Amino acid sequence: MSLFPTYNRFPLTIVSGNGTKVTDDNGKDYLDFVSGIAVCNLGHRPPIVQKAIEEQLNKVWHVSNLYEIPIQEQAAEILSEAADLDYVFFCNSGAEANEAAIKLARKHTGREKIITFKQSFHGRTFATMSATGQEKIQEGFGSLLPTFEYFPYNDVSSIEEVHDGHVAAIMVEVIQGEGGVVPGTKEFLKKVEEKCRELGALLIIDEVQTGIGRTGKAFAYQHYGLDPDIVTTAKGLGSGFPVGAMIGKAELEGSFQAGSHGSTFGGNPLASAAVKATLQEIFTSDFLEEVINKGKAFKRKLQESLTGFSSVSEVRGEGLMLGVAVQTEALPLVHSLREKGLLAVVAGPNVLRLLPPLNVEYEEIDQAVTLITEVIRQQEASLQKA
Ligand SMILES: *Cc1c(COP(=O)(O)O)cnc(C)c1O
């Protein structure tokens, strides 16, 4: 194999996908409740996005950001309006979006310190790895960038006690995704916002996983009425086309001018076509309301079906970003589910994470609940025997 072994891969080769369904090289079908890790929010090969990319393929693929790109501006307009913000910078990934946010916050405030949270995840580049509050991700790379400080998540009093004039920004996830599908409390998130205002620091919300309708709002911070200065997003933004974005307030404009920052590929015509079509589909009140309804139904059915299992501690999350916290290892559950035809993923060692496409059918949700209940029942039975 000519690849660096940076991934533990499941023994599965997906050769085609359509909606929530994917098929492997043996012809076996699966319900995909991973969606490429919250990427394929409209399912696999959504016709509207496919058509938009095909149309752009027949015009021009890439021109560089040296020239006007009207479709990029159209995508930016939809994105900034949905976020209640003003300007967009397009890049190619979540980590790059967070890099842009970190650079902009430091340049705008003239300060260096950035507060992030334990168990957070912000990416794998040097700055975003340093921002990430998880030692296992930082191990072996030597000294990190020194200007990040990690605070306990959902701990109101520790944030309250920050009195520091050097803080450029506080960067936070509304729901910690990789950290275990842990929703922030309203009190905590409001306190973070309040502290930013008090310190003259910027509020950066990392919506790389929670954005683009995943939780039933365009962005998850909209559940809490927060007013971020910068929002970053990526995963679901292009329905699988690699693209990221940083979105910010108009008053930051002067700090990101020609020559301040850039990306060769960022927002190229193909990526912008994917973004525009994706957002036009997801950012409507009808679509988002259905995500809320489906998320509520999924959560309630899981909770009902899993009551009485001593190994299940909690079903949590928002919209169609749910986690089943278990007292055992979650990974064996993922393997058993795959054998039964359901793809899921872990979030940390003890959480089964469920991220179906946002247009998943109710019937598919029911099938998933049945299979999840079945594997948990089997695991409890085999643990009792042992
Ligand atoms: C996935 C993720 C990232 C990193 O995104 P990449 O596209 O892998 O660089 C950053 N922040 C959060 C919250 C994520 O879930």
**Tally of helical segments:** 12
* Strand elements, count: 17
The CATH superfamily name of the largest domain is Type I PLP-dependent aspartate aminotransferase-like (Major domain)
Radius of gyration: 21 Å
Largest sheet: 7 strands, mixed
Mean pLDDT: 97
Helix content: 25-40%
In the residues, how many domains can be counted? Answer: 2
Q: Which overall shape is indicated by the principal axes computed on the Cα atoms? A: globular
Under CATH, the topology of the largest domain can be stated as: Aspartate Aminotransferase, domain 2
Structural class: alpha/beta
Q: Oligomerization state of this entry?
A: single chain
Low-confidence stretches: none
CATH architectural category of the largest domain: 3-Layer(aba) Sandwich
Q: What's the arrangement of strands in the largest beta sheet? A: 4-12-11-10-7-5-6
What percentage of the residues does DSSP assign to strands (E)?
Answer: 15-25%
